[in-house]
Amino acid sequence: MAFDAGSITFKTSDLANLYVNGTGLAAGGGAMSSEDELQKFRSGSVAVIDATLTAILDDVKTLDNRIVNFQNAITARAPAGTEDKPYDAAMMKREFMEEVFALLLKRSDFRANSPTYNVNTGDVTEDLLGDGLRNLSDKTFDDMRGYLVEGGKRIFNSYSSLIDAIFTEGNKMANNPTDPATGLAVSTNITTTIPDTDIGGVIYNRVTSERIPGASDPDDTKNFNYYLIQKNSTPVVSGKTNVEGYAVNRTDNTVSTTRPVVDTQLTFGGNLVTTNYLRVNKNLTAITGEVPQPRLSRQMSPMWFLYYWNEARVKVLRGQLNFKEAVTGEIRDDLAKAQKAYSDLEKQAGRTRSQSADGKTMNPDLSYETATMDFFEATNTKAGATLYDNAGADDLQNFNTWGSSRSTLKTYIDAKSTHSQDAMLDYQTTLNRYNNAFEVMSKLQEKVDGLVKSQLRNVA
Predict the structure, then answer these.
(1) DSSP one-letter code for 70
(2) Is residue 133 within 8 Å of residue 147, measured between CB atoms?
(3) What is the pLDDT of residues 46-105, one digit of tens each?
(4) How many C-beta neighbours within 10 Å does residue 435 have?
(5) What is the pTM of this model?
(6) Range list of β-strands (E), 212-343
(7) Which residues contact 9 (CB under 8 A, 6 or more apart)?
(8) Which residue among 164, 216, 228, 426 is least packed, with the fewest CB closer than 10 Å?
(9) 3-state secondary structure at position 301
(10) Same structural domain for residues 143 and 201?
(11) Cα-flanking dihedrals φ and ψ of residue 354, to 5°?
């Protein structure tokens, strides 16, 4: 079952509620609830929404969808991120939170302490960031909260919790299949029939084994535990359940097993126990002092055993593939924003000259960076660095410094383009593994179909 929150669909009601209601702030109070503040952040707060506010609200929508994409992605075990490649959970959260903060600063109803100043860029009057906010990577989350009014802090904290919850939900795709925690997991896909054997009043007629974890030689019989299986014991039921938020198809199912209720009781070593498995030595002799107990098992034929685990593999690969896809989307987003900033740079640089008309004054003109450039630098520059030439510690540049900034921004775009190619290759590798898992499943289905038809012909 999917849960809608406006135009966004979530896998669970908890995520949908967190998105809509938020978490609020423990201290400070405030006139509005987190839900009201989030609604204002996403929908505006004035009767007439101008073009600037419309653009900000569109950016909020885009960011929300990018974040929610990760509810279907496995971020666990991703390579450690860097500021050049912020593609692990911690670094991506940092990137998302910097963007949330930047969007809050663009709204006068959420920012405090006047962290922006107003300039005319030549076409429009824009709010630019103050010098202390040139690079958000240099700020802690607590630093960022200090620039916000109470409502802004509520929104900031709500997004922090939402991002954590979404990453946690995505990582659940790796927990497949899920088995009951009770008992010992014994893979009984292959069992051997033995003559009926009476031990303590219980009849056993099959034997299975499991390799001891960490055993040095998996082929040596001393590295195995052996179990007798009670005659006529009910096999474990293997089944598939639909996962919330997915279409009903094979890739979106959770494979699981359910241990049956065992009614047989026997006294062993002075203890009354309920059991259908008994641990024995390699000679199938009961181990002195061993207390039988219920054992989790997967009593499947070799064919169904392979199908079972291959289906589990498909689901895990689906989560990994979603992660690779989301990463490529993040890089494309960075590139799109960089291209917009570059376009503004060229336009503003065109307002300056290398020298005055009489040739006596070098770099006679100055022009401002735009808000697009300013906020892009703040959210995409590595800690301790600047993306543009800011020798004057301001947002004004002349002909010469525009050239230096142009070179730096082009280098950034070229690096991101390379990252995009690498990410696509990584995505293709995972996609090939995903397709291979489906091919294996298809062959298993063909084999089963052939066996069934062959048996039907023999019966006829």
Answers:
(1) G
(2) yes
(3) 555 567 889 999 999 999 999 999 999 999 989 999 988 999 999 999 999 999 999 999
(4) 12
(5) 0.77
(6) 224-230, 237-242, 253-258, 265-268, 271-274, 277-280, 296-297
(7) 2, 3, 245
(8) 216
(9) coil
(10) no
(11) -75, -30
